[in-house]
Amino acid sequence: MLDQLKSSAEVTEISVSGFDSDTLNDVVSESLCIPKRKTRALSEIILAKTEGVPIHIIEVSSVLLSFTSLSMCKTPQLSFLLLHFSSLHV
Q1: Which of 11, 23, 88, 89 is the most exposed place for a label (fewest CB within 10 A)?
Q2: What pairs with residue 71 in β-bridges?
């Protein structure tokens, strides 16, 4: 199917690699305005659920934000989140 598309239209392929643990923790820390040492556990849960695939990280983050009152740079419930998010089937 991709070969068919390539023959009938101009196609640009983009290779996207997965996030590693440190990179994901940097993103989570910056997004939530929390020091990296405090977001490590959440980052590890997200990494385990997504295998570092960026589109899956976006989806899990979206679910995470919709299930909690967590928002960017406002995180008083981080410990509650860690307890409950690890058991969600995403």
Answers
A1: 89
A2: 74
